[in-house]
């Protein structure tokens, strides 16, 4: 007999990856739509000589002037050489973080019908919840993750279930926003600018903060599937914390480095608009999320960026038409976000659209 593989049909409403992962029909293998690659799964231990920088936040906010200036130098180096660092002593209470993880878990345990009520379709809808990425039809492969993504600032939006999740998340977003803004002040200073230059140029008082919760259930073939493929984030910096289950990798000197974060530390990556604002001095770092076969991984992700109506361009003090011409063309942040979200993952990055081509 001749067997013909059934064509792949992505139903208009896909089952969550949670439902799929818990289904007894999987029998140790994943559907072909989730097969990303045969050879991306090459976790590399980080090199002892060149390990991920660790920044002590308390020195930035309450250190002596000398400690503060040293940590700002270190922050600048981390942004330039890695685009990534681990943040310790950040002051966000562990009890709050634990409660947000517990409530996130409860959220994903809501029935599929309940979660569908929160399913916005467009990049800037205030509440979106779903599986894979927001426009699954645009990609060929599906991602081994479910997500909830909200706009947290300048206005806070959140699902009303489960009870208490919204209140906890509001506090979490306020706390992480304070940390992000302090970091951005230090980073601005490390560029040789006045601390307030970025706040003023990018209207950070009404900056866009997103809050995303990613759920990566155990996957029977983690070497085939992917949680999130390589990408950069669109904002200025992103703070990420995980439920102590590893999976994040960052690209460094052309290699993928597996991030081993100490418990309760934030993983911070620099993003597209920091690259643009710094006129290319700080690079937006590529990163990806792998999955594993044993434990559910949850990440809490809070990107912070300019206000949506800001036209972003390199900081004027970093541009000199003779020696340092602007390497990026001005673009409204809102237009950038919309364009990025409509770009198929794996396609040319949105940064390429604003980068001035070398003559
Ligand atoms: C993201 C992201 C990685 C992770 O949400 O943009 O890069 O480990 N997440 O969840
Ligand atoms: Ni990301």
Automatic annotation (TrEMBL):
Q: Where in the numbering of this chain does the Fe2OG dioxygenase domain appear?
A: 206-306
- Asked whether the keyword Cell division is assigned, the reply is no
**Is Metal-binding among the key words of this record?**
yes
Protein name in UniProt: Fe2OG dioxygenase domain-containing protein
Q: Name one Pfam family in it.
A: 2OG-FeII_Oxy
Question: What does UniProt list as this organism's lineage?
Answer: Eukaryota, Viridiplantae, Streptophyta, Embryophyta, Tracheophyta
- Molecular function terms from GO: metal ion binding; oxidoreductase activity, acting on paired donors, with incorporation or reduction of molecular oxygen
What species is given as this protein's source? Escallonia herrerae
Q: Which family does it belong to?
A: Belongs to the iron/ascorbate-dependent oxidoreductase family.
UniProtKB keywords = Iron, Metal-binding, Oxidoreductase
């Amino acid at each position: 007999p001749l067997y013909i593989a059934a064509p792949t049909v992505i139903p208009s409403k896909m089952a969550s990856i949670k439902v799929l992962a818990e289904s007894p029909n999987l029998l140790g293998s994943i559907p072909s739509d989730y097969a990303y690659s045969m050879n991306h799964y090459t976790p590399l231990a980080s090199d002892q000589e060149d390990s991920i920088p660790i920044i002590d936040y308390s020195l930035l906010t309450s250190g002596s002037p000398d400690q503060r200036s040293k940590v700002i130098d270190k922050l600048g180096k981390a942004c330039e050489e890695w685009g990534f660092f681990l943040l310790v002593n950040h002051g966000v209470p562990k009890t709050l973080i634990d409660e947000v993880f517990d409530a996130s878990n409860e959220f994903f345990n809501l029935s599929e019908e309940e979660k569908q009520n929160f399913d916005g379709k467009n990049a800037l809808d205030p509440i979106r919840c779903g599986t894979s990425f927001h426009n699954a039809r645009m990609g060929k492969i599906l991602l081994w993750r479910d997500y909830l993504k909200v706009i947290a600032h300048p206005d806070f939006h959140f699902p009303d279930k489960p009870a208490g999740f919204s209140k906890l998340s509001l506090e979490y977003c306020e706390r992480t926003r304070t940390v992000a803004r302090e970091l951005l002040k230090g980073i601005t200073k490390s560029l040789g600018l006045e601390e307030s230059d970025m706040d003023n140029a990018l209207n950070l008082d009404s900056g866009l903060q997103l809050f995303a919760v990613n759920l990566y259930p155990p996957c029977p073939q983690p070497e085939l599937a992917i949680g999130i493929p390589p990408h950069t984030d669109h904002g200025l910096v992103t703070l990420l914390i995980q439920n102590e289950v590893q999976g994040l990798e960052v690209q460094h000197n052309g290699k993928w480095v597996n991030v081993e974060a100490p418990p309760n530390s934030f993983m911070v990556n620099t993003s597209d608009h920091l690259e643009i604002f710094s006129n290319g001095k700080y690079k937006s770092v590529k990163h990806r999320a792998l999955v594993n076969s044993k434990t559910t991984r949850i990440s809490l992700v809070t990107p912070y960026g300019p206000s949506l109506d800001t036209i972003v361009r390199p900081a004027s003090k970093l541009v000199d038409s003779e020696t340092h011409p602007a390497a990026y063309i001005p673009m409204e942040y809102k237009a950038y976000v919309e364009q990025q979200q409509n770009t198929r993952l794996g396609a040319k990055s949105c940064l390429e659209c604003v980068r001035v081509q070398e003559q």
